[in-house]
Amino acid sequence: MGFDRNSRLSEEIRKTISSVIQNGLKDPRVPMLTSITNVDVTKDLKYAKVFVSVYGDEAQKAKCLEGLRSSAGFLRKEIGANIKMRHIPELIFELDNSIEYGLHISKILNEINSKKWF
Questions:
Q1: CATH of 2-114, one of 3.30.300.20, 3.40.50.720, 3.40.640.10, 3.40.50.300
Q2: What are phi and psi of 24, to 5 degrees?
Q3: Do residues 20 and 32 make contact, with C-beta atoms less than 8 angstroms apart?
Q4: What is the pLDDT of residues 71-100, one digit of tens each?
Q5: What does the pLDDT look like over 17-74, one tens digit per residue?
Q6: CA-CA distance, 116 to 118, in Å (whole number)?
Q7: Domain segments of the chain as ranges
């Protein structure tokens, strides 16, 4: 029962943060090509680890994480306004490189397929 609640809550927090980043966040350090890939909420609902994927180089990724960490209070306020909860979890932002890794693997596979094997 707790697993279902955590997974539903994680998904709702992910949707809310994504929506706020696209529509309401005015921090120039956070680019529009920022996506929230996953949110993991602890069992006691005190912390939520937010996995962020950013398109760009390492400097842009660092600036984006800095911008998100500085706007964590605003994001928590928006989560509280959209999701009825007794306690809003503290947001911890982590960089997620899975999308870039997937593109890298896809590129390697395309190179292998383009070679003619005899």
A1: 3.30.300.20
A2: -115, -10
A3: no
A4: 999 999 999 999 998 899 999 999 988 888
A5: 999 999 888 888 998 888 999 999 999 999 999 999 988 888 999 999 999 999 999 9
A6: 7
A7: 2-114
Q: What letter does residue 89 receive in the DSSP assignment?
A: P
Three-class secondary structure assignment of 11-55 = HHHHHHHHHHHHHCCCCCCCCCCEEEEEEEECCCCCEEEEEEEEC
Q: What is the pTM of this model?
A: 0.81
Q: How far is CA 10 from CA 5, 36, 40, 115, in A?
A: 8, 11, 6, 43
Query: Any idea which residue has 């800095």 for tokens?
Result: 66
